[in-house]
Amino acid sequence: MSASAIASNIQREPELLGQTVVVIGGSSGIGFETARRARTEGAEVILTARNPERLKHAATEIDALSTAAFDASDPFAIERFFGALPMVNHVMVTAGRPYYGRLVDMDFTKVRDLIGQHLSQALYVARAAINRVRPGGTLIFMGGTSGRHPAIGLTIVSEVIAQLPALTANLALEIAPIRVNLIAAGFVDTPLSAELLGDQLEKRRDQIRKTLPIGRVVGPEDVALLAVHIMTNTALTGATYDIDGGQQFVAA
Questions:
Q1: How far is residue 17's CA from residue 160's CA, in Å, rounded to a whole number?
Q2: Tens-digit pLDDT profile for residues 165-215
Q3: Residue 189 contacts by C-beta under 8 Å, 6 or more apart in sequence?
Q4: Whole-number Cα distances in Å, 131 to 94, 176, 231
Q5: Residue 177: is the preceding peptide bond cis (ω within 30°)?
Q6: 3-class DSSP assignment, residue 92
Q7: DSSP codes of every residue in 18-40
Q8: Do 48 and 70 touch, CB atoms closer than 8 A?
Q9: Second label for 229, Cα 20 to 30 Å away, from 20, 43, 205, 221?
Q10: pTM of the predicted model, to two decimals?
Q11: What is the pLDDT of residues 128-153, one digit of tens each?
Q12: Are 221 and 30 in contact (CB under 8 A)?
């Protein structure tokens, strides 16, 4: 029997079998693809999102265990959600959106709220997760790589991106044995990217294909694979994992 035939006869046990994964911001994009991948690996999935209709559609598509519709920027909503949550194994937070804009055009009221929102959301979720995530389970946040280099319009994005790795490392110590990690993505071809770029989306895709070392655009399914690996590899905590196809090293 050939090696390929032997390999095809080996049935791999799903890596998340018997575990429960919560995805905050799981109705589309990276969150939804992570939920889908977790289901493929045998997990039960609990989805949350702001939009009830999109959430219902996503939950039906992947046969989610349950859902909760709320605004993840609201600390009281986070507290209520986790207060009613059974014990789970993993929580991934993809809710929220970046703020791009020049200094002269900034709405300072909105900017003030957004700067604190990303970091405070992480803190609220981490504190709420202490009594709901099983020891050795994971808490995964989303950050980015594109704001690491100064550029016009990236002032707020750069500030948030710079702070998240330090926050992640400190939380990994403070709420251990829960593992805390950060995924730093570059451009990912998601519905949010389409919304932000509008009619410039295809131009951006073409630019990335031509400049990235991997020669293609990173998709949400790529990030989902990394997220599930972080969940299943119990040696990982306090770290930031880049996934941008080499975007930060080239003019993309």
A1: 35
A2: 999 999 999 999 999 999 999 899 988 787 877 888 899 999 999 999 999
A3: 205, 217, 218, 219, 220
A4: 21, 12, 18
A5: yes
A6: strand
A7: T-EEEEET-SSHHHHHHHHHHHH
A8: yes
A9: 205
A10: 0.87
A11: 999 999 999 999 999 888 766 666 66
A12: no
